[in-house]
Amino acid sequence: MSTLPDLVFFAVLLVFAGALAGLLAGLLGIGGGAVLVPVFYQVFGYVGIDPAVIMHLAVGTSTAIIVPTSIRSFTAHRRRGAVDMDLLKGWILAVPLGAVLATAVASHASSEMLRLIFALIALMLAARMIFLSNRLHLGDDLPGEPARFAVGAVFGVISGLMGIGGGVLNNTFMTLYRRPIHQAVATSSGVGVLISIPALIGYVAAGWGEKGLPPLSTGFVNWIAFALIIPVAMVVTPMGARLAHAMSRRQLEFGFSAFLVVVSARFFWSLYG
């Protein structure tokens, strides 16, 4: 991807990817990482990027995009007083520690391993939303230490490996303990900040000097994708949000679950098809 036509084709594909990611993120009420990683995987593959680094690049670039979006979301939610700041303060070490550990694992993992991890976790999340939504509760309040620290660290590891902001995981965790979904969503924006900043640094370091990366990449982060996705997604996301308000919560859960199943199937096919 060294010629001008190649770069233009790459940019056009990313604009369409940003529109798709923004629409789905707005429709499904997620930060976009679970959408962006599989979309990046497809786009990077279309333009001939080395398969050995495609998944790493998809996860790292998705993580970079989560940084500004999660900070903006957290600021807005905090002004409304909806964030559980006590939970975030308890996770201020655990979540970043898990995210940094994830980047260390990713630096030694193959593209195939990262795809398998993403596919398996996506299937588990889909199964939870389809079969256990609003029907499973583990208690009336969040667990104390050291269980809470362990949960934060695990969320950091899983989110860092998948290139997501942890919203799906934290929403599930808090609602399992009967916290209101609006508080869970608001707090998840802060979790995204705790995950994305250290994970971004980790993916830049892990991919430093790696061969086969596209132009304007710093480690496993491609700044062309970053610059094009952010504005397009911000324009399109409200359209998806308006569509979401015309649907029931259960319809949205089934829609997101179906999306995760399709993504898992795509990754499994790439591994074993």
TrEMBL record:
InterPro entries: TM_pro_TauE-like. It comes from the Bacteria. It holds the Pfam family TauE. The chain crosses the membrane at residues 12-41, 53-71, 116-137, 149-173, 185-208, 220-240, 252-272. Keywords: Cell membrane, Membrane, Transmembrane, Transmembrane helix. GO terms for cellular component: plasma membrane. It is a multi-pass membrane protein. It is found in: Cell membrane; Membrane. The keyword Transmembrane helix applies. The keyword Transmembrane helix applies. Belongs to the 4-toluene sulfonate uptake permease (TSUP) (TC 2.A.102) family. This is Probable membrane transporter protein. It comes from Ciceribacter ferrooxidans. The lineage of its organism: Bacteria, Pseudomonadati, Pseudomonadota, Alphaproteobacteria, Hyphomicrobiales.
